[in-house]
Design a protein that fits this description.
This protein is mostly helical. The strands form 3 sheets. The chain has a two-stranded antiparallel sheet. Strands 2-3 form a two-stranded antiparallel sheet. Helix 5 runs parallel beside helix 7. The radius of gyration is 25 Å and the shape is globular.
Length: 464
Amino acid sequence: MKKSYIILMLSSFFLWSCDNFDDEININPNLPNQASGTQLIASAQLSLSGLSASPKGAFMAQYLAETQYVGQSLYPQESTSFYGWYQGPLMDLETVITSDDLNANEGPVANQVAVAKILKAYYFWNITDRWGDVPYSEALQGSEDFTPAYDTQEFIYNDLFEELKEATGMMVPGNIDGDIIYGGDMEKWEKLGNTIRLLMALRLSEVAPEKASEEFNLAWNAGVMSSNGDNFVFEHLNDANNQNYWYNQVVDQNREWWAITENLVEEMQPVNDPRLPVYANPARATGEFVGMPYGIEEIEGAETEDYSLLGSEIFAQDASIHLVTYAQVLFAVAEAAERSWISEDPEENYNMAVENSILQWTGTSEGAAAFLSNPEISFNSDTALEQIAEQRWVHLYMFGYEAWSEWRRTGYPNDLVTPNGVEIPARLNYPDNEAFNNRENYNQAVERQFGGEESIYGKVWWDE
């Protein structure tokens, strides 16, 4: 009994000690016990490069051809998970937006919330464009709701327009700390919010042209990017902790698995496009730029030396990822002007778009005038929408998912190939787990969009 009593007393002491441990021992006064708003924003920003750094995205836009495992580029019918976006950056941003105790010493609270809203909108825009209807209004509730309903893409777009307007409208003077994208510069964040609205509006050109024109004009008049200095860029470092995905693949893993496609070389080489030497390295066997046919499982006698592999600047350890750019704005304005949505000059904006794309990719605009004087590149009002779309495709190199969305919307370039008769997908499949973990809502979304059978060839709302 005495032994039992001692054990009981020690247990009671231990439990009491644990109850007071956090208060008296386990808190370092020099460290926060939870992440601050700006730390959560920075954490969410670190995931931005993952939106574009993907062989799958490059395959969707047919920028790169697979040299090693060609079957991976033949669009297998497989699930693709969106869980990481919800569990990581979106949850971080939602925490900022709903917090009641953001630290004003890190910058005006309104500005912290505004930046979080813009980033959240940008992530959700990417997610819905890839999958279609997704959990949105009931998402990010943590343990309060593990089975959120799927909102329609139309609802998500309309709500994101309002969220972005609210975000830019709530900004006040004063920068925020810890911003690894714009250094806390709220003027640039405001331009980004309006620019995302502008590009989202253009995405609706075929499904809701009146709404598209209205939102485009509102964003345009509110003030969008005005130079390459406003570009939404993720900067990698010469450090393994924050290095370029492609550096890890090509250098660390020693993988020569990706060559530039024949289509892209044929688009760029005949017109002496100054961006080509950045996009790809010359083939080692010939010293010439040679594109690889996309999706061909066997090319007799061919070696990687015969083709132009990924450009050295593209897989540099500290290479930048361009997510939203001034050139995109100019292409969008040129298209909107051609559609008579705005009174701008389509030719002038097309030329400026190409020039700023060349400046972005090469660091100089010296070759732009000669390039634009080429008869195949010079603006032609009879084929303006096609020209704009094709040069936008060239510009968006290595952000394959965005280029794929624009291809789905416009149909250009119209010479992307269907190897072995395999068509380019119209969306990504939902994660397999959703059919089990969120069965009722998953089934409703699939029935609503695709008549009950999910497929990578079912179209999203704006693509119908």
